[in-house]
Write a structure and sequence with these properties.
single chain; 104 residues; mainly alpha
Length: 104
């Protein structure tokens, strides 16, 4: 998995969530904190060279509160991202299916 792609998808999802739910043009402080936290987790991932997406990982390094927030953001933004960034969504889906196929 391309780490830059994962970061790009994450930024798009958090941005979309914040714009639609908090009615802001830039990230609100809570969403900015979540995005920074998630990007840091990606950077510090011990499986970075071979990883897929965090949702496919066997080790969950997010704090419980942040994991709940990111799930909420992804559940909201995932379907909506298909309209604004369909290529990213398809790439994400392909990578996720590959990861599931390799883990079985």
């Amino acid at each position: 998995m391309d780490v830059n792609l994962e970061k790009k998808i994450l930024r798009e999802m958090v941005g979309l969530y914040c714009r639609k739910n908090h009615k802001t043009k830039t990230l609100c402080p809570d969403c900015a904190r979540l995005e920074d936290y998630a990007l840091e987790r990606i950077e510090k991932c011990p499986f970075r060279q071979t990883k897929t997406f965090c949702s496919s990982c066997k080790v969950h390094c997010y704090r419980k509160d942040m994991r709940q927030q990111i799930r909420k953001v992804m559940a909201f933004s995932g379907p909506r991202l298909l309209l604004s960034h369909p290529v990213l969504v398809v790439r994400h889906g392909v990578e996720t299916l590959k990861a599931k196929g390799n883990s079985e």
